[in-house]
Design brief:
- The complex is a heterodimer of chains A (about 200) and B (about 425).
- Chain A is of the alpha+beta class and about 200 residues long.
- Chain A folds into two domains: about 30-95, NADH-quinone oxidoreductase subunit E (Arc Repressor Mutant, subunit A); about 105-200, Glutaredoxin, CATH 3.40.30.
- Helices cover about 35% and strands about 10% of the residues of chain A.
- In chain A, strands 2-1-3-4 form a four-stranded mixed beta sheet, with helices on one face.
- In chain A, helix 2 (about 55-65) crosses helix 3, helix 3 packs across helix 4 and helix 6 crosses helix 7 (about 175-185).
- The longest helix of chain A has 14 residues, at about 175-185.
- Chain A is globular, with a radius of gyration of 20 Å.
- The model of chain A has no long low-confidence stretch (mean pLDDT about 90).
- By secondary structure, chain B is of the alpha/beta class.
- Helices cover about 40% and strands about 10% of the residues of chain B.
- Chain B has a four-stranded parallel beta sheet with strand order 3-2-1-4, sandwiched between helices.
- In chain B, helix 2 (about 25-35) crosses helix 10 and helix 16 packs antiparallel against helix 17.
- The longest helix of chain B is centred in the last third of the chain and has 26 residues, at about 385-410.
- The radius of gyration of chain B is 22 Å and the shape is globular.
- In chain B, about 60% of the residues are buried.
- The chains are: A alpha+beta (about 200), B alpha/beta (about 425).
- Chains A and B meet through helix 2, helix 4 and helix 5 of A and helix 5, helix 7, strand 3, strand 5 and strand 8 of B.
- The structure holds flavin mononucleotide, iron/sulfur cluster (SF4) and FE2/S2 (inorganic) cluster (FES).
- The site of FE2/S2 (inorganic) cluster has 12 residues of chain A, from helix 5.
């Protein structure tokens, strides 16, 4: 059966579940400082609503190790007194949680219309060529992962590249990409332009 | 119009508490705390303030609906700002966060809430860090937290980081996400005003909406209403991106026409090119053609012109833009961001993207055009949230205005916008 009479439902190209199964990983526990920080965050919600802190908890996992593992999800579940399934449900939904190993620098190129009108597709191509992996890939040295992202909310500074969920590089051009990659290697995230709204930091 | 919201945003250190206090900061809160909550709601109602998040629903009315018999109540500030082409809340939060804090507190006072949760998209972490530092200062100096301004009234502001989901901007999905779940909408009714966060009465308000409150309290409802056309009062932020000379955020009254915003404020189309199409309110709204821009950029006038003001994200495209490609690009966004709760949206979006992609590659057939219309119409109006209508828009609106371009792709088996002119190869000049 098909929801639409003209659809080749079940045929080639049919949308299939892409359910992610997370690797078990090593035993995980928050460091005492992170546990204290998370406990403080839990206090911002009603006592019986610790679950509200699950996104914060998963960010803290990602601060402590490169990606989310099944062991980490179980620890988060214990901490928040919810079930591991509830944590997995959330971890697999949001795109800013990494479900598999990623490089030291995750380059997230905005591909939505305003950025694409300013050449984002070529920026992604140039980065891919420089790093030597397709979009979605991590280079063999484990230094870079290249991802595409949807609109980052800075379309006046298109094309925008985000690094590690946090640092921004605006007005990327295909020509500047090779230099950007080299600079990241040499100087880390300091090499990025940052958000143009931080006028004091120029 | 003298800017109201963005007057100071380009000045150094405008984000700090010191700067804010030097420019009348928190005086509106003081005034509001001396006014009965119900009277604050009446002032906001009289001002005619309409929500800046997309739907343009009157804010005072929304607050009136909040069930005042049930405790606790909440404000959930929508700082998810994920609609493609929209970047106005970003400026306000980064450059003038205390305005938002003051707006949140006035809102909480009006509806009797003790906490405002600011749900900020995960990608704005650099903004969040600035805001958290400033919020700590506001707490330390008695502008938030316990016994605010010595009034004996307590109210907390909590900044909550999202993690990359457009759908988290939908008000009930935002509430789900705040509760630590997937950002998937709830069935309405009940509306959040009766049963929202933790099943308690909740007002969901956009950042720009809340930022208007201090000025309304200080200058009065009439002043606010008179800034714009009837029922479209107040200052408005417009985000202009795409093929213009000076992309950016511009503040204007809603008397200003779309043409004035694009040509006078944003500098017009880059040199040597002509305007082809404008998306006036974020990627979810229908396209306007160059001859449809002489209308005031107000909620009502843009709707009369056949589109919507939405989030006021104005995306401008010149003649180098292939409209099949543009529709395909946006459809990638929608298929990626669908929360997956309803079948038409989840499955249909993916199919629309596949059909658009094969037409764009030159492998389409004429019957694909009817298929696009049919699939789109089987999504729009048949889903749980307004995402479905938004998702059906790019194919329907491009087909409506640029059908010949689709047909040429199919007939010639290739993209018909000259290769060296393709939008994808054009990098906008810096300014
Ligand atoms: C799919 C979808 C995404 C939305 N995204 C946002 C958003 O990012 N920011 C926002 O303020 N409103 C967004 N909205 C609108 C909200 O649902 C809601 O109407 C708004 O936050 C109410 O605030 P306002 O009355 O102040 O505009 C979105 C709606 C839908 C259907
Ligand atoms: S219309 Fe789409 S985004 Fe909205 S609830 Fe349904 S599946 Fe989710
Ligand atoms: S389209 Fe790239 S930041 Fe909005």
């Amino acid at each position: 059966m098909s929801f639409h009479p003209l659809m080749p439902y079940g045929g080639q190209g049919f949308q299939r579940s892409e359910r992610t199964l997370m690797a078990e990983g090593e035993a995980f526990a928050f460091t005492p400082e992170r546990a204290a920080r998370l406990e403080e965050i839990c206090g911002r919600y009603p006592p019986e609503r610790r679950k509200s802190a699950v996104l914060a908890a998963l960010y803290l996992v990602q601060e402590q190790q490169p990606y989310i593992t099944a062991s980490a999800m179980r620890h988060v579940a214990d901490f928040l007194r919810i079930t591991p399934a509830e944590v997995e449900d959330v971890a697999t939904y949001y795109v800013m949680f990494f479900k598999a190993p990623v490089g030291q620098y995750v380059l997230q190129v905005c591909r939505t219309l305003s950025c694409a009108l300013a050449g984002a597709e070529r920026v992604a191509e140039a980065l891919s060529e420089k790093i030597g992996v397709p979009v979605g890939g991590t280079d063999p040295s484990g230094m870079f992962t290249l991802l595409e992202f949807e609109c980052l909310g800075a379309c006046d500074r298109a094309p925008v590249v985000m690094v590690n969920n946090e640092h921004w590089h605006e007005r990327a051009t295909p020509d500047s990409c090779a230099k950007l990659v080299d600079d990241l290697r040499a100087r880390g995230v300091e090499a990025l332009s940052g958000c143009h709204l931080h006028v004091e930091r120029r | 119009m003298e800017p109201v919201l963005t007057k100071y945003v380009r000045e150094p250190n405008s984000f700090t508490l010191d700067f804010y206090l030097k420019h009348d900061g928190y005086t509106a809160l003081k005034q509001a705390l001396g006014t009965q909550p119900n009277d604050v709601i009446e002032i906001v109602k009289a001002s005619g303030l309409r929500g800046r998040g997309g739907a343009g629903f009157p804010t005072g009315m929304k607050w009136q609906f909040v069930d005042k018999k049930i405790e606790p109540r909440y404000i959930a500030c929508n700082a998810d700002e994920s609609e493609p082409g929209t970047f106005k809340d970003h400026v306000l939060m980064e450059r003038y966060p205390h305005l938002l804090f003051e707006g949140c507190l006035i809102g909480c006072w009006a509806i009797g809430a003790k906490v405002a949760y600011i749900y900020i998209r995960g990608e704005f972490y650099h903004v969040q860090k600035v805001m958290e530092a400033e919020l700590a200062k506001a707490y330390a100096q008695g502008y938030a937290g316990r016994n605010i301004l010595g009034s004996g009234w307590d109210c907390d502001i909590v900044i909550h980081r999202g993690a990359g989901a457009y759908e988290a901007g939908e008000e009930t999905a935002l509430i789900e996400s705040l509760e630590g779940k997937r950002a998937q909408p709830r069935i309405k009714p009940p509306f959040p005003a009766l049963s929202g966060l933790y099943n308690k009465p909740t007002a969901v308000n956009n950042v720009e909406t809340l930022c208007n409150l201090p000025a309304i309290v200080l200058n009065g409802a009439e002043w606010f209403a008179k800034l714009g056309p009837e029922k479209n009062g107040g200052p408005k932020l417009y985000c202009v991106s795409g093929h213009v000379k000076r992309p950016g955020v511009y503040e204007a009254s809603m008397n200003t026409t779309l043409r004035e915003i694009i040509f006078d404020r944003a500098g017009g189309i880059r040199d040597g090119h002509q305007l082809k199409a404008v998306i006036p309110g974020g990627s979810s709204v229908p396209i306007l053609l160059p001859d449809q821009l002489d209308v005031p950029a107000s909620f009502d006038s843009v709707q009369k012109a056949g589109s919507m003001l939405g989030s006021a994200g104005i995306i401008v495209m010149d003649e180098t833009t292939c409209m099949v490609w543009a529709a395909m690009n946006l459809m990638h966004f929608y298929k990626h961001e669908s929360c997956g709760k309803c079948t038409p949206c989840r499955e249909g979006g993916d199919w629309l993207w596949k059909i658009l992609s094969r037409i764009e590659r030159g492998e389409g057939q004429m019957r694909d055009l009817d298929l696009l219309v049919s699939v789109s119409n089987n999504i729009a109006g048949k889903t749980l949230c307004a995402f479905g209508d938004a998702e059906a828009t790019p194919p329907l609106t491009t087909l409506k205005h640029f059908r010949a371009e689709y047909e040429a792709h199919i007939r010639e088996g290739r993209c018909t916008v000259p290769a060296e002119w393709r939008a994808r190869t054009a990098v906008a000049a810096a300014h």
